[in-house]
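Your task
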Amino acid sequence: MELYHDILKGILDELVDNDSGDGNSKVKPTRVQLRSNLAYDKLAKYLNELENNKMIIKNPLQITPKGRDFLRDFDRIASFLIEMGIRYFDSSKVVGLRN
């Protein structure tokens, strides 16, 4: 689940960083690879899984409403775990989830 989150967050961050206001931002898989810290072949596998689960569209690379819901829910659960003092996640990654 954390890998899915990292990939979706990478796509979202690229969309935000590249948004020129004209709605034509393009996300390049290699940029998402760098943001998610995965080997390209692994990224390609996970992108296929995310597309099969209807969380992304691969051409052009974008997040669907279902993918955005996953990101929101994952962040909410991670925040809840932090508040409850449960340390299931690496604390450095969880802190980054709040951004």
